[in-house]
Amino acid sequence: MNVAVVMYDRINLINFANVLGFIKSFENANVKTCGFKSEVVDEFGIKMHPEIYGEGIYGADILVVPDGVGALNLRHDEIFLSWIKSGSSTKTKIGFDLGSLILAGAGFLQGKKATIRGGYKNALSEYCEICGEKVCQSGDIISVSEWGDEIKSKLAQILA
């Protein structure tokens, strides 16, 4: 199973590491970090380099967008969102907390439900209906407001 984990400026490195580490623990998961550009900087200024950059997200089965305050601006960046849309054929799209705003900005949440932590519900409600659960699945979209056992179980089902 091909998994594309998106990296972007002002990504939350802790969420990124948790998600990436968990997904890579599955033998059948072929995980690649993907970025729109060759270097991204996390919320604290740490520079990182995605394995694949500047290429479309075609061929992935799962698209994962980790949490990060950078999503607040990127949800309005049409060039970045065009790149995210190249992953439209993925079977499953997963947005972790603010990462769901990127999926929303790309149009993936239109007519669907999603979840996000409390202070950002108004921002997400511009795009879709708000779900009150920690993990919300609506069609091919899974949104997560909090990393924990519930999403680990859901990911294990998808990756098994």
From TrEMBL:
It comes from the Bacteria. Signal peptide: none annotated. It comes from Campylobacter gastrosuis. This is DJ-1/PfpI family protein.
